[in-house]
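Lecture 7 notes: from sequence to structure.

We start with a single chain of 334 residues. Read the sequence below before looking at the structure.
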Amino acid sequence: MTHQYVVRSTGRIRDEELYCDRVIGYLYSRVRERAPAIFNAVVSARMSSLLGFMNYDLPLGARISGANSLIRRLGIDLSECVEESSYYSTARRIFERRIRYDEVRPMTNDALAVVSPADSRMFAGSLSEDSVLFIKDKFFSYADFLGRPNWVWAFAGGDFAIFRLTPDKYHYNHAPVSGVVRDFYEIEGAFHSCNPTAVISAVTPFSRNRRAVTIIDTDVPGGSGCGMVAMVEVTALMIGQIVQSYASEGYEPCEGMRPGLFLRMGQPKSLYRPGSSLDVLIFEPGRVEFSADLVANQFRADVGSRFSSWLERPWVETDVRVRESIARVLNKQA
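Now the structure, written as tokens:
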């Protein structure tokens, strides 16, 4: 089945090229059912790192001709990048590329904006049963996903957004809001694929993947004023690690996450090494409102989304760019 999404800038429907789709489908159907031990080995940290090495680091992938072919296939625009095109001679350098984000991903001047943390396919959801965006225990089991009970309580009934990075995307995450880091912790887990086939085949897969959780307090001087925001970075198949590398300007110098660190909206926060992966933002109840066009796209019945078939109602992703507005702050404080 084709998986489609909406391009935000044009409103057009596009077919997504799902990398290794047949292999993922086979793995999450026959292998998972008939050989669970093999399936568990494939989604383990050791195998994910090995697959990443084979895809991105072997000498065969380092040839200039091979790199150019990969760039063309993924449709990557090297003119956006910080380094000269000759630098991108390996798959890893291509996937971990840096862009001139101030120029090629300009950010809104709206003081009430919440921005996308990544170049990605996005949809919104809600933990409140009273919301039209309510969806329960499909993509993640909320309590298990955040891990720590105090934060589970803080975001109960709130809204969330999921940002799915495909292999062709720029793989730096940027801060979606301004505020002070109140907590940062990592949760061990597997490396399930973020391919839509894998997502709908596994039970709450995002709750079982390795992930990094950053709790940002935006009700502080200079903050976005939308309460606590949880930013959860979720690893996937062939993602070796999440490198926390916040930079207040450019990409260097950078520093890791720690309580007390002030994050400025739109600045680089972390890097996925490399492959596909996803971000999840969770907001306190009543503190943000998602952009009307994104919500409207989500319920389009003319788009062939695998998520729509799974949920038995329209549930469509929109292709968004890092640092562009995806929501507005309600009841701003601080």
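The chain has one domain: 4-18+108-329. Keep this in mind for problem set 3.
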